[in-house]
Structure formats: structure tokens, C-alpha cells
Amino acid sequence: MILHTVNKSPFEKNSLESCLKHCKKGSSLLLIEDGVYASLKDTKYSDAITTAMNDISIYVLEPDLTARGVQDQLIDGIKSVDYAGFVDLTVEHDKVEAWL
Amino acid sequence: MSEEMYDEDEYQGEIKKLMYVNRKAPYGTIYALESLEVVLIGAAFDQDVSLVFMDDGVYQLKKGQDTKATEMKNFSPTYRALEMYDVEKLFVSKDSLEERGLKVDDLIVPVEILDADQMADLMEDQDVILSF
To answer: In total, how many domains does chain B have?
Structure first.
């Protein structure tokens, strides 16, 4: 299974949209850098993420979330990971696909 | 001194209406920080400055930014210092806040909220617009 990473804001680029369209059931998505804005409640993209969570595991890189001051807005069920957790996810999956 | 010469301290150039339009999230790209630096440098010249935050630019003003774990510079407190440089006209897009589930209380500085029509009028009223 693939670990997908998205590092662009969903408001600015279609990286998240393309990624979700190509994520197979059981794969994982890690939101990093400006991609963390996709992990938030009450946004235009919250529904797309909560729907996707039925089929894939979604993670967010916590240092990038707190840097942006949006940690309180995190959607329930998205798992926060630190840099070591990022490494673990990379090791656990066969390959990484970065949606730039 | 001849009468044609003017005292540098008294010389007032033409005051222009200058708008900075900020549309990028902080940290992911360098635009937000660069814009802030240009605004601070530009504040040395007496101009009629307006700052606009729209699209992901509204995230620049989000309260509670803490960049320690990323080892990046948290420049968000600098927005609170703009007032001391007489940069006091800050405008935020209503639509951009709503799309992101944000309220005016989530922002670190007092701002004026404008809808798209009001924003368009404000843009039309400027002499120069700088985009970041």
C-alpha cells in the first residue's frame, strides 16, 4: 500500500483532490506543510476529508499544524504524528507518493 | 541656500494610495514573510497604505501560531507591530474567512471585514497595487 503525502493547501492547488481520487482503499494519506489546512473542521474541504476517512487512514504532521495555529480545528479521527511518526509511516508502507 | 532648494525634512512627495494584497498562507512559501518585510521597509515613506488579506492569506493572521517544532521563524507577532509604523488599514475578505471556518476573533489584529464588492471598490480606489 502507498503512503500518499499532500503538501499544498486545498484552497490553492488541486493536489488533495487528485490524491483522493487516486487513493485505494486501505492506503494512507499524510498531510504536511500547507497540506495541513485540509485537516480542519468547518472548511470547504472538510466533507471531502471525512468521506475519504471511510476508506483511507489520514494523518497530519503536528509541527506543521501548530506552526499555523490551527491545531484546535483538527477533524476528529485524523491522527497527529511527529517527525519520528512520519518516518515510521514511511517505513510501514511499500512506497511514498508525494502530491506536490 | 537658494529658494528653489527644499529642506529634506519638509519635503513631501506625492502621497499615493498603496495596497498590498496578500493571498498566500504563511510558511509554505516565502511570499507572506517577504510581503511583511516590504511593508515594513515601505513604512519609512509616508504613503497611504492598505493591507488586504484574502484567500489563504487570511491564515497569515491566525492566532496561536507556534513554529518551535518546525524550527521556522514565527513572524505572526510582527502584524501587531504594524500599528507603530502607521500601517493601520487592514482588510480581510469575508468569503475567505467563511470558506475556512474562521471568525474575526481568530485573528491576531483588529481588521475590517469586506465582502467582494467592497474589496473591488477599495482596489479600484488605489494608485498602486502590490501582490504577494
So the answer is: 1
